[in-house]
Amino acid sequence: MADVFPLILCIIILLASVISIKTGISVTVVEITIGVIIGNLGFFHSESWMIYIASFGGILLTFLAGVEIDVNLMKDNFKQSFTIGFLSFLIPFTIVFLATYYIIGWDLNPSLLTSTALSETSIAVVYSVLTQRGLFRYKIGKLIMVATFITDICTAIALSVLFTKFDIYTVLFYVISIIIIVIAYYKSDLFFENSMFRNKMSELEIKYIFVLLLAFIFFGSLGGGQAILPAFILGVILSNHFKNTSRGEVKSRFKTVAFAIITPIFFIIGGMKVSLPLIYSCFGIFLTLFTLRQISKYIGVYYPSKKFLKQNHTYVTMMMSTGLTFGLVAAVFGLNNGIINQTEYSVITGILVLSAILPTFVAEKWYTPKHKELGIEE
């Protein structure tokens, strides 16, 4: 009977795309919502291979998001990007910690883990939506991506400093990650610019990137590290390789591979992790933390965005209020290491999934920038 699950999964992925096209709602939101529904109805269960592909999908999305970072824009607008990104992390982290530790009464480590997980902005959701709406052609899309990068760097540092127990494997993970990134920076031309590999059916460039990302995942699993940060940095340092290669055809093919089957599994499995009965059992806590998170994100993003941007600051705020990718990583880490229990995990995951759906829906329904209003493409 288990053999029917891949077929059901592919039907769900196709159905999500049809619903997205018919309704105009981002396919990301549809996939997560369907994941929540089927996960709680109980007729579909994720298998180990699905979970692995889902985790790889999150890393792949993170890498592709890094590819879209405009390094020159980041340098030229560092003050704006850093201010928005840092406050987007700091204010939710502080408010959620104070609420969970002093008001709700959770222990110190669960409170710190929860505040870390809920402080992130989802690279996967932001990248998916900006790509679908074609906003990377404009300065606003690039600024949102850079600010998201700053937020998640802060989240990654917080998780590492507060909870990672360093041993020889952890050191090995970071050393190997640095080596891979340095080698990729200097030697990737062998794959991207070598005329010998151009226009071949083997898709060597894509396979090369897959090998690097899977290496991050493997050594991260050995050392208790997180592959998201090195994957994102790898994307940033290889962004010029993608821009300079045959009119971006490699990046286009890469997106086709990613968005056709791999990333939908990530979003669907992410939705399936939400246990509605457990959330219902402590709905007051769930609603309180969700409300505090969204309000603190609003405060942290809206006011600096309004200061630095002439328009569309509400859209920026909504997009940077999304959560999912690194928050899920942090929640899984906390559950597997006994930092949080199953109920706390479901509350965190439920908040992340709802924060991926609701702000995205509001942003796309009422605040999506009109291309003609954005002026010249940059």
Can you give keywords for this protein?
single chain, 378 residues, mainly alpha, Na+/H+ antiporter like fold, 20 helices, globular
Note down, in words, how this protein is organized:
The chain has 378 residues and is mainly alpha-helical. The protein has a single domain, classed as Up-down Bundle (Na+/H+ antiporter like fold). The N and C termini lie far apart (51 Å). The protein has helices at residues 4-23, 27-41, 48-67, 71-76, 78-104, 108-118, 123-132, 139-163, 168-187, 189-192, 204-223, 228-237, 239-243, 249-272, 276-281, 283-308, 313-320, 325-336, 342-367, 371-374. The mean pLDDT is 84.
Task: Quickly describe the structure.
The chain has 20 helices and no strands.
List the helices and strands and how they pair.
Layout (H helix, E strand, L loop, with lengths): L3 H20 L3 H15 L6 H20 L3 H6 L1 H27 L3 H11 L4 H10 L6 H25 L4 H20 L1 H4 L11 H20 L4 H10 L1 H5 L5 H24 L3 H6 L1 H26 L4 H8 L4 H12 L5 H26 L3 H4 L4
Helix pairs in contact: 1-2, 2-14, 2-19, 3-7, 3-11, 3-12, 3-14, 5-6, 5-8, 5-16, 6-8, 6-18, 6-19, 7-8, 9-11, 9-12, 16-17, 16-19, 17-19, 18-19
